[in-house]
Amino acid sequence: MKSFEEAKAVCEREQDPFYADAFMIEAWLGDVVLEAATEYAEKKNAKDRAMQTGQSWRAFLKIFGHVQDEDFHHVFEHFFRFADYDDVQAVKLLRAIIALSYEHECYGDYVGPKTMALATQRKEGIRLMRRSLERCCEWIDALVHFQTHALWHMAPLMLDSDAEKRELAALGVGQRNFVDKDDFGKRWWEWHHGEAAERFKDSPKWQMVGKAMAEQKERTWMYRELDIVVISLWPLVKLHNWTYRDLQSVARMILAAPHGYPLEREQELATYCQNVLGLRKSGLKGRSNAEGKPRGWEVALKLCPRRAESSY
């Protein structure tokens, strides 16, 4: 669906309000991706970036903040339904839901079998749904952050300081990988390529498509596995107020090479998070767990079971 009018037409044809929400969900996730890309593209010095500061939830409220309590369960149901689709944006939502399910499995938090009794109470159930979606947004922030961080190293042209060039570079990379796309991906790329070709037919920026298609230059990625772990687990750092020592301890449980820079000292890891990953702790100072197993460590091992091979 390329416009809200088209989404409404599908709703009327199918007698199903889901498609209007699906269009808005896709727009919401797209906004989150664009904001993360802008942060990386316009702030070349990593220490100037501010990642995972509630971007997804703020973007959600801009689109769905008007929804009243009596209608919120429809939006909530449509989120889970959207996650079942075979679509790039749907996969983001699905992976966030999986992370949320791990938290529920370990601690009984958020929506799930362990909170069924609470969910049946109207006011408490709505608060539970809203709290669960807000938490889901934290996991979306982590996923989008990692994907953007990976692009920064693996496809630098897609994070050009010019937003239009970023769009065209994405088309070029898509063209390079066209044969690997499924039918939906191919149709979407062909539509986007045709639409962009018309918009940029007189612009020298169109050359970016061919440049991105041909160029496979990458940046050196020194600490890839560590970056996966830290970025992926930052929602746990925020929720449970982990200290950097807590994060250091959990990372050492996961990584194949758990020692060496920047995991040798707590302060080293703090500096690395701030100056390389754009991640900063806020709020009250936490207290490190004496056994090196802060609340949330079980969730961390489910997400990143060994050697940083998380689903992200």
Keywords, please?
mainly alpha; disordered C terminus
Q: What would you report as the Rg, rounded to the nearest angstrom? A: 21 Å
- Number of domains in the coordinates? 3
Helix content: 55-70%
Bulk shape: flat
Report, as a whole number of angstroms, the end-to-end distance.
27 Å
Order of helices and strands: HHHHHHHHHHHHHH
Summed up, the helix count is: 14
Largest sheet: none
Low-confidence region ranges: 308-312
**Percent strand:** under 5%
Secondary-structure class: mainly alpha
3D architecture notes:
There is one protein chain. The chain has 3 domains: 4-144, no CATH class; 156-214, no CATH class; 224-303, no CATH class. 65% of the residues lie in helices and 0% in strands. It contains 14 helices and no strands. The chain has helices at 4-14, 18-42, 55-64, 69-83, 88-107, 116-119, 122-154, 163-176, 183-199, 207-214, 224-240, 244-254, 266-275, 297-303. Helix 1 (4-14) packs antiparallel against helix 2 and helix 2 runs antiparallel to helix 3 (55-64). 34% of the residues are buried.
Describe, in short, the structure shown:
This protein starts with a helix and ends in a 9-residue tail after the last helix. With 312 residues, the chain is mainly alpha-helical.
